[in-house]
Specification:
Number of domains: 1
Protein name: DUF2029 domain-containing protein
Shape: globular
Structural class: mainly alpha
Number of strands: 0
Organism: Streptomyces plumbiresistens
Membrane topology: Multi-pass membrane protein
Largest sheet: none
Subcellular location: Cell membrane
Pfam families: GT87
Number of helices: 21
Strand content: under 5%
Length: 460
Amino acid sequence: MRLPRTDRGRLLLVLALAAAVTAFTATVPLLRDWFDLRVYHGAVDSWVHHGGRLYDYRVPGTPYGFTYPPFAAVAMLPMALLPLRAAIGVALLLNLAALTVVLRILVGADWRRYGWYGCALGVCALALFEPLRDTFSFGQVNILLLALVLADARLLATGPGRWAGIGIGLASAVKLTPLIFIGLLLLARRWRAAAVASAVTAAATALAAGVAPDASRFYWTKALWDTTRVGRLDYVSNQSLQGILARLGEPDRAVWAGAVLLVLCVWAVRTRRAVAAGEWTTAFALTGLTACLVSPITWVHHLVWLLPSFAVLVRAGHPRLAGALYAVLCTSVVWLWFDDASGVDGFLGSNTYTWITLGLLVWLPVGQLRAAPRRLSRSTSAMAPAPSPAAPAIAPVFDQSAPPSARGVPATAAGSVAGPGCDLTRGASSEPTGSTHPSESKPQSSSSRASSYTAKPPPA
């Protein structure tokens, strides 16, 4: 298929793709009806205006309520001033702003190379990405947390990182999963950043304890350990190691602990290599992959943490592989096994997203990031002197596996191409997502069987 080369042809293609994407998202996937946002809004509203206890609230007609740490509720207090529809509008704007920040960090200034046409195609592709669609449709906080964490990656890669750790600390206070990024800072021996992240998490948690002492006491002593508040481990949306074992009928926690330990070892080895190469985006991508694998529950919408991995693949020169894996994550393929995940096909198919996450953790390129080629303007190329035999026009390609000093590249120069995203510029989850019974599982399926569920909304 030949892509159009004229602006008119490109505009027609973009309009056709936009119409197709709109039709797909409006009809094929099961819309989540802002279920998570309704949990947040209802819990905070009940807590502030009706004297209810934060963790006692349940969405009417469902067994699902607030399951995040108390600081998350404190951060959401302004929501109590808004009606639900206004809160939905604000959530959409915040998620769009956070997605813009994430893309700016991952792509850097290179987006200008693609112009309006490339950006429009990129928006269409993002709209198809199932974890991202679900994050918006649920009114979830995943993309906000990803933006906070990647902001620290940016700070670590582009300077001394004096303020690095604040984003990770805030994200960890809102949700427990980002705590693993403090482990990344410790692995990288960025002691100051690790201390900042830990201090911010502790301060935010203490603030919540001061504002809501009863809720904090209940959460840390009871709610955190009550797995029935979260949902079924074997639910097909749970794309973690624990989800695989649960669908196999393997309840032994020792087996899960062993698998988690093995994954953490792989993460530690590969992350230290990425940090040694100065590739902070790769290190953060590997950590996001690991967080999805080791968390007891990783719902499909949590997989927005895979986005940095695709940026790394493209930057390392593997755009086709990135496109193929990304396309699979747009298909909602795991929902084909919503009713029955038994057999070999169920083992392979229902865990498709977990296999992709594992594969990226093991094979994500490390030490191969490179700056995108820059187009020289005609005026510059016209004024450039002709190359001489002593100064060949094409510089030799450095061995990317060797350290900067071995390649004759100053450490500061090497850092300019190994930062976040494009890295070009220098200078146990607990959510109301699963279910307790298949017929009351708030299915996230895009299949017609799941779509027939109307009495209760989809999971968080």
